[in-house]
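hi! just following up on the protien thing from before. the input was this:
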Amino acid sequence: MSPVIPHFTSECMEILNVKTDKIDWPKVDETYLAKDTIKFIVQINGKTRKIIDSQKDTSEEELLLKIQTDVKLNNYLKTGSIQKKIFIPNKLINIIIT
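and the predicted 3d structure came back as:
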């Protein structure tokens, strides 16, 4: 409770004769915070068309293969040729089609 209401907690601990300097914060285990999969945002001409689940640190080529095998996204790619690709690792890919 100390981070939320420190003054009240201090008063309670004082009444209970508990030394607050001996209380330790819990340790954080960062292995539970790490994620193996990432949600990539797929944009075509600047508009979000789909969010794809993929492994962390997926390369641009692997992500393009996933996009080409997806039926919905492949329909957008058929309308023209890829002019430019903007790839931000572990976040998004934006494909400019003309």
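The first helix runs from residue 6 to 15.
The first strand starts at residue 37 and ends at 44.
cheers
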